[in-house]
Amino acid sequence: MPRLLLVEDDARLAPIIVEYLAGSYDVTHRADGARALETALAEEFDVMVVDRRLPGLDGVSLVQGIRRARIGTPIIMLTALGTVADRVDGLDAGANDYLVKPFEFAELLARLRALRRTYTSNEASLSVGTWDFFPEDRIIESPYIGPVALTPKEAELLRLLAENPQRTFSRAQILSAVFTPTDLPGTVDTYVHYLRRKTEESVVLTVRGKGYRLGSL
After folding, report:
1. What is the Cα–Cα distance from 212 to 137, expressed in whole angstroms?
2. In what residue span(s) does the OmpR/PhoB-type domain sit (predicted)?
3. 124 band by pLDDT with thresholds 50, 70 and 90
4. CA dihedral of 165, 169, 174, 178, whole degrees rounded to 10
């Protein structure tokens, strides 16, 4: 069975989740973030399910710690906080998906199956200067500061540029490829700013009057 790390401190909910998942996964349960981080760093898992609110070390900090250790195991974050800002915090930390409580167990299983179908731990990286970019893990790794977690849209934007390093994309082309038709052209500028802030200013080159292309790091 694939190994699953469940990090959930709710004494009533955790045993129910363990029992439900036990038919499909070899489940290891931890009830606090600090001990869960120790386990995640010491053992190998195929997927992780992490509650956002945890004693000792909260879920966002736990996921950040896992990603800083260059562990790309797919992670679903469980949260009772359903606001966009809370979900974005989890994704920014490096989670691959989120599920808002209360949830149906069938949906949790379906999301776990989807993550495991799309996840490939041996994916070749894309080079961005001296940095290594792992699109599926949404991580770009610096030889100086280590791995940096990207949001889904940041990773999509960087992947578009990194796979076409000699091409300049207009804002309209990036909107069509990465974002939605209802997004404004300024959305592209915002996400370029996010990428530069997380890495270096030179990650994306502005081509005056034309748009953006991959820069160098």
Report:
1. 24
2. 123-216
3. low
4. -20
The token duo for 136 is 């599926």
Beta strand extents in the chain (DSSP E only): 3-7, 26-30, 47-51, 75-79, 97-100, 126-128, 131-134, 139-142, 146-149, 204-207, 211-214
Stated pTM of the model: 0.57
Q: Is residue 138 a contact partner of residue 150, using CB atoms and an 8 Å limit?
A: yes
pLDDT for the residue 123? 55
- The torsion angles phi and psi of 16, rounded to 5 degrees, stand at -70, -45
* CA 158, chain centre distance (Å): 14
The total number of residues written for the chain in this structure: 217
With 0-12 CB in 10 A as exposed, 13-18 as middle and 19+ as buried, what is 188? buried
